[in-house]
């Protein structure tokens, strides 16, 4: 049985019917990890022993009377930004190399309670700074579709693990595209929730006003099951809303006839790869054929998104990373010296270049005299972007756009360009700034530039490299069900999401 | 202090640790008395990765209550900001504080400065610039002779209210009186133990001096830290003012520095230069939603405000006619002045009952005159009033002297004490009626405090009833005169001291039970 080809609903059924045990499933995925991780580098830490213990517990739970939770007994991977009590959590940074958290993130605690099984901690860009996976202090993760290419980031390991079938699903996080972009580049389904839908407690903070905890899986239905399992108000996170969590997966409705769907023209940017454009346009056509009304809309402030992000994100990063000072936990210099020496050396030795770059930018931007000109002004523009979305959602139900203007690029491209990703992020950042829910779903394949032509399908051409393209679905705040329904309708009508990397 | 036309300009920054059960942003205990280091902590306090602050609503309520008690405006909207700096006692690398939208603005406190003989007493309004909520830092410790430092995070994250005054204060005395009044206000509201010695109230004066004729604020100020008593606040200011004047007279200007008060040398010492202003890189705390105060919420808190010290001061003066210094001492301890008022109620109840006895008497004797009643009888009333005032004064003195001393020794509150207000009133009555002597009363009170017994029973039990019987006293006086011819001679030769000796001998012979007034009278008579 190739369990990696099954959906969560199918795994649920097999577990409930005792066709397979959680221990068997866990061993199955651990074996795949052992086999493929040395090359893919999708995991920083593999928690084999804990996973098998949890799986045993899950089996006991399944075998005892009463209903199981949607994710009971099903293994998963967690981005190494989620704190796991007693299990090393690094944020892919040397500054937390040997950090063993004293508590579980709220989402991890919820999943433990529901008897889900943690396989390991997924690789990522260091502190989630990056969109290639290459800023990890534990080496870059490779794209399962082409191991000379990046999987995108910052949730690089989560995306690669799901794409390669090393885990049925993975926890990931987004600040400005870190779920949608790697999901797009690795051909998996990714969900970035409404800001405040999922607790941030226990996830090392990047930019507090933007961080959203979501997931990657192989279908929208799976994402809906995950969403109903990890969402909800958390008294430990004052920014989570006190809203009920609908049973998203049970409310899925593939009938989208008459739904009004906007296509923002600003999202089809200059420099977008032709193959990507073609795949996304085709997906929009499919959705139109399902009975939705497609209208072109304009979001003129889209172009300011990356600029606002370039100020807000490093400002909050510089503040959130201040706690890594070598005093209480994490890396502390062995050289000693004065207090200032300890701070400077510990941080210089522990942080990677990208973290340092953002700390410096943020520190500058927040300095007296610059705050009004940069941070305050950026927040005003952010408000305008939010208003623009609010206006457009009065006219349309959801928005469709490409998730990324390009397919996966060769490893190394990011390192040579510190501004790498800032342009591509334009398609993801506005929804992050507005705290909106969004999906990225596989919608076809394209050849990368310079490798000749545009591929017509995944099977075309033995020689030409074909890489996944992602379709982005953006909804209004708290509009999770709407984006799930549109995505579900699309996946009912197409089979791109079932294609696997070889 | 001779100021030669120089005018001190003093503003105060006061931190008050709010008396909440848990910390400002986490459920870890907020216990300023915890001795074991690093026990009042959780993952939020030590800023583990991924932790988030959750606002303590009780801290907000107490902060707003103090704001209202300081006559501040409470803005409808208020928010928290992050203030960044690196220090081992600051776990997050930033302090959650309030920068430009504090919870309270533009208030005032009126202080009463007593006469010092040279000038009259006066009142003065000290304006409050603002009050804002923030979290406390931990404490760094440097064990002597060891090559490392330690950090205790017990205090980290405790809720603080920072209160900032306008530079309206002109003398060290005004500063001290303001601090004492503020302490009372905060305690009355129940917002904090506000104890300078324990650090639940901390004060940093900002001091500068205007040159003669100068109208604008001086271009420098000196902040003094490390002050942990009202006395030191006063001393530090009085140390700084002449230091500044001396420099200004020499044509210079004091440096903009932070000084530390050294209580061993009674001097201030420069801690760090403030010429390079710290850049705290404030920005709005993204983890906490802004606060919005509804009119209903504020009205409710206004309704919850207790009688404040300024109101009580006026009322005590009007109702009890006590000396200002006695009133001030009573005002310092809310529990005690509430207890005192209970004693007064007992006294009043007794006086009314007593009057009704007089009433029935007068009805008997003056039944022909139906209009006659004690209320109409000016003489009766004034006698009662005189007695009431006397009893109240005595009760106040017992409260602020013997009772306070015993309570303080036990770190106890009047409400915890076994001495009921009724028994305290009873004791005062016994003394007033001459039934026990002052020294016997102290013994009785001690027993009352220990056992909670009723004073008349204790008097009986200890045999402390005062003897006013002239016959018995006369016998004793005769015996003493006979036994001390030398002293009698000395007295007659004009040595007043010998009279005291003889009184003492009589008192001793009667085991302290004689009414000293009667002893005095009889002895004087016999020796004349």
Q: What Rg of chain B is obtained from the alpha carbons, in whole angstroms?
A: 30 Å
Beta-strand percent range of chain A: 5-15%
Count of discrete alpha- or pi-helical segments spanning 4 or more residues of chain A: 14
Gap between N and C termini of chain A: 17 Å
Largest sheet of chain A: 11 strands, mixed
Largest sheet of chain B: 8 strands, mixed
Beta strand % of chain B: 15-25%
Largest interface: A-B, 44 and 29 residues
How would you classify the helix and strand content of chain A by structural class? alpha/beta
Low-confidence stretches of chain A: 451-463
Strand order in space, largest sheet of chain B? 5-6-9-1-10-11-12-13
Helix content of chain B: 40-55%
Overall geometry of chain B comes to elongated
Would you tell me the structural class of the helices and strands of chain B? alpha+beta
Assigned CATH architecture of the domain at 3-230 in chain A: Alpha-Beta Complex
What does this structure look like?
The complex is a heterodimer of chains A (502) and B (528). Chain A has 502 residues and is α/β, with parallel strands linked by helices. Chain A has a domain at 3-230: Amidase signature (AS) domain (Amidase signature (AS) enzymes), CATH 3.90.1300.10. Chain A has 14 helices and eleven strands. Chain A has helices at residues 8-16, 22-40, 48-63, 106-113, 156-163, 180-186, 220-230, 274-289, 305-320, 339-350, 353-365, 372-395, 429-433, 480-493; strands at residues 43-46, 75-79, 117-122, 170-174, 189-192, 212-217, 260-264, 293-297, 398-402, 438-446, 467-474. In chain A, strands 1-3-2-4-6-5-10-11-9-7-8 form an eleven-stranded mixed beta sheet, with helices on both faces. In chain A, helix 9 (305-320) packs across helix 12 (372-395). Chain A is globular and about 65 Å long. Mean pLDDT of chain A is 94; it is low at 451-463. Chain B is an alpha+beta fold. Chain B has three domains: 7-290, no CATH class; 320-462, no CATH class; 470-527, Orthogonal Bundle (Arc Repressor Mutant, subunit A). Chain B has helices spanning 57-69, 172-189, 230-249, 295-304, 309-320, 324-331, 334-365, 378-410, 421-432, 438-451, 455-462, 470-483, 485-492, 496-509, 516-527, and strands at residues 7-17, 77-78, 81-84, 94-97, 104-113, 122-135, 139-141, 150-152, 159-165, 201-210, 222-225, 257-262, 267-273, 283-284, 291-292. In chain B, the strands form four sheets. Chain B has an eight-stranded mixed beta sheet. Chain B has a three-stranded antiparallel beta sheet with strand order 4-3-14, with no helix packed on it. Chain B has a two-stranded antiparallel sheet with strand order 2-15. In chain B, helix 3 links the parallel strand 11 (222-225) and strand 12. In chain B, helix 9 (421-432) packs antiparallel against helix 10. The A-B interface holds A 82-83, 89, 91, 96, 99, 101-103, 105, 200-205, 207-209, 235-239, 315-316, 318-319, 321-325, 327-329, 339, 343, 363, 366-368, 371, 375 and B 43, 46-55, 82, 84, 86, 88, 91-94, 151, 277, 279, 281-283, 286-289.
């Amino acid at each position: 049985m190739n369990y990696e080809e099954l959906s969560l609903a199918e795994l649920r059924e097999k577990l409930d019917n005792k066709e397979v045990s959680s221990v068997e499933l866990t061993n199955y995925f651990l074996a795949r990890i052992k086999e493929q991780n040395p090359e893919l580098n999708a995991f920083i830490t593999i928690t084999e022993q804990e996973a098998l213990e949890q799986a045993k517990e899950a089996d006991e739970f399944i075998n005892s009377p009463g209903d199981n939770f949607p994710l009971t007994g099903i293994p998963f991977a967690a981005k190494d930004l989620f704190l796991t009590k007693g299990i090393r959590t690094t944020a892919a940074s040397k500054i937390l190399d040997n950090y063993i958290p004293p508590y579980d993130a709220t989402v991890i605690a919820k999943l433990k309670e529901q008897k889900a099984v943690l396989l390991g901690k997924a690789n990522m860009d260091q502190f989630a700074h990056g969109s290639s996976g290459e800023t990890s202090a534990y080496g870059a993760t490779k794209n399962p579709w082409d191991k000379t290419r990046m999987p995108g980031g910052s949730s690089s390991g989560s995306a690669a693990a799901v794409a390669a079938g090393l885990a049925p699903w993975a926890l990931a996080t987004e600040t400005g595209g870190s779920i949608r972009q790697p999901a797009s580049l690795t051909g998996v389904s990714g969900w970035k929730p409404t800001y405040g839908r999922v607790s941030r407690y226990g996830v090392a903070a990047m930019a507090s006003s933007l961080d959203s905890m979501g997931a990657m899986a192989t279908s929208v239905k799976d994402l809906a099951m995950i969403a109903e399992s990890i969402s909800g108000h958390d008294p430990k996170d004052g920014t989570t809303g006190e809203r009920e969590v609908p049973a998203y997966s049970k409310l899925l409705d593939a009938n989208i006839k008459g739904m009004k769907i906007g296509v923002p023209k600003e999202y089809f940017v200059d420099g977008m790869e032709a193959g990507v454009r073609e795949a996304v346009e085709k997906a929009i056509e499919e959705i139109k054929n399902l009975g939705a009304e497609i209208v072109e809309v304009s979001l003129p402030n889209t172009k300011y998104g990356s600029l606002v992000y370039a100020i807000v994100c490093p400002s909050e990063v510089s503040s959130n990373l201040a706690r890594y000072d070598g005093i209480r936990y994490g890396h502390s210099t062995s050289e000693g010296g004065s207090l200032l020496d300890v701070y400077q050396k510990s941080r210089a030795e522990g942080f990677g270049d990208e973290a340092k770059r953002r700390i410096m930018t943020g520190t500058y931007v927040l300095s007296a005299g610059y705050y009004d000109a940069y941070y305050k002004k950026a927040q005003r523009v952010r408000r305008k972007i939010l208003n623009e979305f609010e206006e457009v959602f009065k006219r349309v139900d959801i928005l469709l756009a490409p998730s990324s203007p390009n397919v996966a690029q060769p490893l190394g491209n990011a390192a040579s360009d510190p501004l790498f990703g800032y342009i591509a992020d334009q398609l993801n950042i506005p929804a992050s700034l507005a705290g909106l829910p969004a999906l990225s779903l596989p919608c076809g394949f394209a050849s990368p530039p310079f490798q000749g032509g545009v591929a017509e399908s995944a099977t075309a051409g033995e020689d030409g490299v074909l890489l996944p393209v992602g379709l982005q679905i953006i909804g209004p705040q708290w509009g999770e069900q709407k984006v799930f329904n549109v995505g579900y309708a699309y996946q009912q009508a197409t089979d791109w999401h079932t294609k696997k990397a070889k | 202090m001779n100021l030669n036309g120089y005018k001190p300009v003093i503003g105060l920054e006061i931190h008050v640790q709010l008396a909440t059960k848990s910390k400002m942003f986490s459920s870890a205990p907020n216990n300023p008395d915890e001795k074991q280091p690093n026990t009042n902590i959780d993952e939020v306090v030590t800023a583990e990765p991924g932790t988030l602050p959750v606002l303590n609503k009780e801290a907000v309520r107490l902060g707003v209550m103090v704001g209202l008690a300081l006559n501040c405006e409470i803005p409808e909207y208020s928010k928290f900001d992050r203030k960044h700096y690196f220090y081992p006692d600051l776990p997050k690398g930033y302090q959650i504080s309030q920068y430009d939208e504090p919870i309270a603005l533009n208030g005032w406190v009126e202080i009463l400065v007593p006469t010092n003989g040279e000038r009259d007493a006066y009142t003065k309004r000290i304006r409050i610039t603002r009050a804002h909520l923030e979290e406390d830092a931990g404490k760094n410790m440097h064990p002597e002779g060891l090559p490392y430092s330690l950090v205790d995070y017990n205090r980290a994250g405790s809720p603080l209210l920072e209160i900032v005054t306008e530079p309206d204060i002109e003398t060290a005395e005004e500063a001290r009186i303001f601090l004492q009044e503020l302490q009372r206000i905060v305690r009355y509201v129940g917002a904090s133990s506000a104890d300078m010695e324990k650090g639940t109230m901390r004060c940093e004066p900002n001091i500068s001096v205007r040159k003669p004729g100068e109208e604008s604020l001086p271009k420098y100020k000196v902040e003094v830290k490390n002050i942990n008593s009202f006395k030191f606040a006063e001393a530090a200011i009085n140390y700084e003012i002449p230091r500044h004047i001396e420099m200004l007279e020499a044509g210079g200007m004091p440096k903009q520095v932070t000084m530390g008060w050294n209580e061993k040398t009674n001097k201030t010492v420069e801690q760090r230069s403030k010429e390079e202003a710290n850049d705290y890189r404030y920005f709005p705390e993204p983890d906490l939603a802004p606060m919005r105060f509804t009119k209903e919420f504020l009205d409710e808190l206004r309704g919850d405000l207790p009688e404040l010290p300024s109101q009580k001061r006026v009322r005590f003066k009007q109702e009890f006619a006590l000396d200002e210094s006695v009133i001030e001492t009573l005002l310092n301890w809310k529990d005690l002045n509430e207890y005192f008022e209970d004693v007064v109620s007992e006294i009043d109840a007794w006086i009314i009952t007593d009057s009704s006895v007089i009433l029935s008497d007068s009805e008997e004797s003056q039944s022909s005159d139906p209009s006659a009643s004690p209320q109409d009888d000016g003489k009766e009333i004034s006698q009662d009033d005189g007695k009431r005032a006397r009893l109240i004064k005595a009760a106040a003195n017992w409260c602020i002297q013997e009772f306070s001393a015993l309570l303080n020794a036990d770190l106890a509150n009047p409400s915890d004490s076994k001495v009921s207000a009724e028994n305290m009133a009873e004791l005062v009555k016994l003394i007033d009626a001459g039934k026990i002597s002052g020294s016997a009363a102290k013994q009785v009170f001690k027993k009352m405090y220990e056992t909670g017994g009723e004073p008349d029973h204790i008097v009986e039990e200890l045999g402390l009833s005062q003897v006013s019987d002239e016959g018995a006293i006369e016998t004793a006086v005769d015996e003493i005169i006979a036994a001390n011819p030398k002293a009698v001679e000395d007295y007659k030769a004009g040595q007043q001291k010998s009279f005291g000796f003889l009184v003492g001998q009589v008192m001793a012979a009667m085991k302290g039970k004689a009414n000293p007034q009667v002893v005095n009278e009889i002895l004087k008579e016999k020796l004349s």
